[in-house]
Amino acid sequence: MKFIILTLIFIIMNNCEKNSLGVTGCDGVVGSGKVLDSCGTCDEDPSNDCLRKVYVTNQSQDYVTVLNAEEDTVVKNIKVGFDSINCNSFNNDEIGCEQNGCDWMNMNGIDMCMGTTDNVGNTPHFISIDETNGFWFVTLMDAGYIEQYCLKKDTLIDRIEIGDLPSLSTIDIQNKNIYISRMNMPGMPSMSSATNVINKLSYSNNGLVDELEIDICNGCSSIGPHAISIDVYENQLYTASILTDHIFKINLISNEIQWQSLSDDTNSNPNIITQVYKPIQSINKNGYLFVTCSAGGDIEGQVQMYNSSNLEKIDSYNFDVNSNPWHIIVGNVDSNRLYVTLSGSADGFGASEGVACLQFTDSELSLVWQNDNLSGTMVEPHGIALSFDEEKLFVSDRSNGKIYFLNALDGELLDEMNLSITSIGSSTALGGVANTQNLW
Fold first, then answer.
1. pLDDT tens figures, 184-202
2. Half-sphere exposure of 280 (CA within 13 A, CB side)
3. Which of 19, 76, 354, 366 has the most CB within a 10 Å radius?
4. Is residue 336 part of a domain?
């Protein structure tokens, strides 16, 4: 009886194996095992099947993490920039900081590990994606470079040096141009640029070309344009100075530049340091310009809404003084929703950190939902991206290395994941987040 059972098992297994070997692969070869994925690639390697991607900058460990947007899993970690020690990796390790030639210091009540010229690291900060032409770009803030990658293969195409703390970026996909702003954090000299310049780079399959420097305020003293966005239909570029509380509109055809104070002061001077509203990021949608203002002190964090044609303020939505609004995104063409991260206080105990959803009409901004200090684990929410179906948000934290997955309809926390590369450190500072709408 035992012999009969074993014989049957052998026959079944043998038949299964023959059936598997008898299958014709997508290459037309019987038994090759090759399968055609949804992007048209024919191979036997499921690890490179096309997927919707989320890119997250790992600032203090000098990597960009790629996630599967639908499964919320890590696909790969990409080392960006040059080989060097990033002292920010040791922000939680005073001994390791000093052993690696870095300086341990306290700045504004926060302990941190700082580097010099040789060990400042690359600090990947922000990512922009061009799905039409198949590229993604990352700013290397401390290295002073911009890198261009192939969107399908995530391989480096080119890098170019522009110096002076490149920060945020915005893309003109039709003309294949990318515009780069500067980092400028009040009270932090190592994170403050000494320029008024935005760089315009062109790009192609052959790489990057530094085409032009746009001085947004001729004669001004290093006001550091930070927020940046573009209206490709009207050929207008928008930026804002975190130091002087002004927004600027640059006509990309005539080069005419207009400015407007965030305080509505008609007699304001864009060259005077005020640091009241502290604008962080801007974004354009349907003829409107939205600007996040981190503010603080006695001033409430807020999102301001402008007519993008004449820079007249339409409305603002105010959070509390500890909210610290940071990055912002908008929904698709038919959506009237905005999503903004609230970084809260630097120590993570301000009880205001979280994420909020606003909606807009032609005359006002209003709150849809707001989650403060979700699950008690958020410390300083930073970057944000919205899934292709607008049902899920991806939010990074620049203090604990976590990425959060939220329901975009009501803000419910779905899951979280620590993206720290443990061989380097148990915590990291995450930055910008961007995602593809299509399969790659």
1. 755 444 455 668 999 999 9
2. 22
3. 354
4. yes
